[in-house]
Design a protein that fits this description.
Blueprint lengths: L18 E14 L2 E8 L2 E8 L5 H8 L6 E10 L7 E12 L17 H6 L1 H4 L3 H23 L3 E2 L5 E2 L11 E4 L2 E5 L4 H8 L5 E9 L12 E10 L3 H22 L1 H6 L12 E4 H10 L12 H11 L2 E8 L14 E9 L2 E8 L4 H10 L8 H5 L8 E7 H9 L20
Parallel strand pairs: 6-10, 12-13
Antiparallel strand pairs: 1-2, 1-4, 2-3, 4-5, 7-9, 8-9, 10-11, 11-16, 13-14, 14-15, 15-16
Helix pairs in contact: 4-6, 4-12, 8-9
């Protein structure tokens, strides 16, 4: 097998006369009498292979003539500068190797000349991912995750991995996927929350994890999945304001990284990404409720925000903004109270989409046990978690950022399924 020397994007008209080897899929093929044009597609783009019958060997011309769309090929050829060709050059083939032929008809068209419904695309995701526009989403996602990790490393965070098979719910409730674990019942983890808090008692101080979480929610919306990727942190000797600042830094840096390094992909998606300010607007829960009411949404104080309320608030706020000072009664048991009514919790929103939730946590054992009881939960179900709070737990805070929803923001997608390679929702367990 011929070994690739260049991706399509690495070849320029200035390489006129040089010999290269490219490899990829036949994106399209056009025969005009004694000349055949093949557009070869690889991960970085496309390149035109031009085969005039009188300039290439007979066997090479015959092989090219036999090609079909999505056949996998490698081509050795000479770069020829040509202003009329795509990208200002073409490749005249010297040797063509057919590495594999594609069956036809194809389940869908990677060239997108024939549109396909989302369900058809997800059923044939390996083909759907050949589309440059679809690949662009995941290149941007990669850029975001790379930036996120770099920010954490620069801020002194340690990457950890916590269990995804757990014995009980993270926060109580019924949104759990039960599984058989030998002779016991276990569950898929809803969140690394309890484990990352326990690690604050270890002295690691600052930890992060990028990993799947599982929620048995019956939602069938464009914003929900049952398996998602969460970016989680926990910081010792920190409060809610410290956690907010870190979240602003992570999100801002990721937006800058995508804006500066993924212009080609943003253009493919026809998405104009705006880099936010380094510090985001902040409104209280009370102010959010007032905005919703002013815009005609019926909502009572102490209720979680409805979808209608999120839309109303998002229309007024726009961009990234925080909702802070939530009622204690509607936040998880581990959230540090601010006073008798409010707690030190926050949500990061982008317009009407919640992308992150966090808080300062309760670090005092007796207060935590009482909070668990007040939520109608049994402290005995959290024995191993609570042990970590008996022997010197520092103040700490943290958050979870939805990687899939953040990708929606960065790529301008309306459906979260577009931002996950193989999405899992209530109806989809394959491929």
């Amino acid at each position: 097998m011929m070994k690739r020397t260049h991706y399509s994007s690495e070849i320029t008209p200035q390489m006129d006369g040089e010999e290269v080897i490219v490899a990829g899929w036949v994106h399209s093929i056009r025969a005009l009498g004694k000349i055949i044009f093949v557009i070869l597609r690889d991960r970085e783009g496309t390149v035109q292979i031009t085969a005039p019958k009188q300039k290439v060997e007979e066997g090479v011309f015959k092989t090219i003539k036999s090609l079909g769309v999505e056949d996998v090929i490698a081509v050795k050829g000479k770069v020829v500068a040509n202003e009329k060709a795509p990208n200002g050059f073409e490749i005249i083939p010297i040797e063509v190797e057919v590495l594999n032929r594609a069956e036809r008809p194809l389940p869908l068209d990677p060239a997108e000349k024939v549109p396909a419904e989302l369900d058809t695309r997800l059923e044939n995701r390996f083909l759907d991912l050949r589309k440059p526009r679809v690949q662009a989403i995941f290149k941007i996602r990669h850029e975001m995750l790379k930036s996120v990790r770099e920010t954490f490393y620069s801020e002194g965070f340690i990457e950890v991995n916590t269990p995804k098979l757990v014995a009980s719910a993270t926060e109580g409730g019924t949104e759990l996927f039960p599984i058989s674990y030998f002779e016991k019942e276990a569950f898929l983890g809803q969140s690394p929350q309890l484990y990352k808090q326990m690690l604050m008692a270890s002295g690691l101080d600052r930890v992060f994890e990028i990993a799947p979480i599982f929620r048995a929610e019956e939602h069938n919306t464009r914003r929900h999945l049952n398996e998602a990727t969460s970016i989680d942190i926990e910081m010792a000797f920190a409060d809610d304001k410290d956690a907010i600042k870190m979240l602003e830094k992570v999100v801002y840096n990721a937006c800058v990284s995508v804006y500066e390094n993924r212009e080609k992909e943003l253009n493919l998606l026809n998405h104009k990404l705006e880099v936010p300010p380094k510090s985001f607007d902040k409104i209280t829960y009370d102010e959010a409720i007032e905005i919703a009411k002013r815009r005609g949404v019926e909502i009572e104080w102490g209720e979680d925000l409805s979808r209608e309320a999120e839309k109303a608030i998002g229309e007024e706020m726009g961009g990234f903004y925080f909702i802070v000072d939530w009622p204690t009664e509607i936040r998880p048991f581990y959230t540090m109270p601010k006073d008798d009514k409010y707690c030190k919790a926050f949500d990061l929103m982008y317009k009407d989409l919640e992308i992150s939730s966090g808080a300062q946590r309760i670090h005092i054992y007796d207060m935590l046990v009482e909070s668990i009881k007040n939520k109608g939960l049994n402290p005995d179900a959290f024995t191993y978690y609570l042990e970590a709070f008996k022997y010197g737990m520092p103040p700490h805070a943290g958050w979870g950022l939805g990687a899939d929803r953040f990708t929606m923001v960065l790529t301008g997608q309306e459906n979260i399924r577009e931002c996950v390679l193989f999405p899992r929702d209530r109806h989809r367990l394959t491929p």
